[in-house]
Amino acid sequence: MQRPVPGLWLVSDDRNDDQLAQLLRRLPSGCGLIFRHYHLAPEARRKRFDALRLLAHAHRHVIVLADAPAVARKWRADGVYGAPARIALRRSSERGFLRLATAHSLAQLAAGVRTAADLALLSPVYPTRTHPGAKVLGPVRALLLARQVPLKVAMLGGMTRARARRMGSVEWAAIDGLGRCPSVS
User: Fold this and answer.
1) Is residue 124 reached through a cis peptide bond, with omega within 30 degrees of 0 on the bond before it?
2) Following CA atoms 161, 129, 88, 144 in sequence, which dihedral angle do they give, to the nearest 10 degrees?
3) Which of 27, 33, 67, 154 could form a disulfide with 71, with the two C-beta atoms 3.0–4.6 Å apart?
């Protein structure tokens, strides 16, 4: 059975780690968490993932792991996040296991289509603290790119609820854009 693909994603980072539990409780049911936490040692990373997985599932969210698909399955994640070639569907038994592809260009969006990704995260749409000084797509270009592929695309990079609304209530994801705000619903 295929899982529904959330339209709103919280992306974990060392900058928002202290807020993750609160945010998962406040997000509307059915959102997603992309667990990265590259800053942690392997054992601490696994322990933090397990705690957040339980909390995410208690609030009817999905959680995907930024790692190899085999690791994501071993950790009982709901899916995997990464470059299109890394998340490709390898067996029919992986149906229901979400695959989220990173993309920064039309070519990478097309790679997400070829690898049967369930969602591509297109970035950076706006300037972001994650990649200071990086060239941004801008909202118009990002929307034009997303319309070129038969794939669900979430906007990432400097996204906030207000920016998503201005872009037409698109699927979106954020590291900082969901934190320290009065309401995320």
Assistant:
1) yes
2) 60
3) 67
Look at residue 91 in the predicted model and tell me its pLDDT. Answer: 52
Decide: helix, strand or coil at residue 55: helix
Could you give the C-alpha distances from 154 to 28, 38, 50, 164, 176, in angstroms and in order?
A: 17, 22, 25, 10, 16
**What is each CA distance from 103 to 16, 82, 98, 156, in whole angstroms?**
22, 9, 16, 10
φ, ψ of residue 66 to 5 degrees: the values are -85, 95
pLDDT along the chain (185 residues), means of 10: 84 91 94 95 97 97 95 95 84 72 96 94 91 88 96 95 89 82 41
Please say whether the beta carbons of 82 and 76 come within 8 A.
Answer: no
